[in-house]
Amino acid sequence: MAEPSFLQPFVLATDAVDPAHEDALDLYLPTETPAPAIVLVHGGPVPGHITVRPPSWPAFAGYGALAAHAGAVGVMFEHGYSSPEAIDRAAADVAAAVEGARRHPSVDAERVLLWFFSGGGVLAGQWLADPPPWLAGVALTYPMLAHYDEITSDVVSPVDAVRGRVDVPVLLTRVEHEHDWIKLSQSEFLDAARDSGTRVDVIDVPGAQHGFETVDDTDAARAAITEALAWAWATLA
Q: What is the pTM of this model?
């Protein structure tokens, strides 16, 4: 049986970095610390029966290594978004992981960027609605940006968050062949951002699919990863 797409190799060649495992965090460390941090927030819902958990997925190992090579601390962890109903628990897990990363001696606590992927994009709303002073920016890669219709949650959705002007730098990476419901949420997000005067930088990845980092072995996919990482580092710097 073929491996699932999220366990396929990262399409951008990079020297691997073995993360330090501390307090439920995987820390991809640069040569010089303390350094700014890029906290990676995986998607969801991720059912409990999946045996290889998100911190071990090649895409996040790739992003963590790229962050470290760029001079930042790549931070990876697992949150509890196991079902749509678990979004509030997942939001609390993200907040705890971010604070844990900021307390770590290798991290410059005043320069942190949050990077949300896929279904984890709904967890970005609270940070956009009320960004703390240390938040350098928010990156969103093929994100879901609105709650499922049947879910009631205290977590503000990104679409609602940007109805008020957001001054934190925001990056949205979109793929050409996106799921319809995710594409709709991204359009709603951009419309709301435009109406409020919130600037959103956009990277469009032609020919790409959701989860392109381990699906699309193309120059366009590699260029998008490189461009997004450059945006993150420039935002932190």
A: 0.97
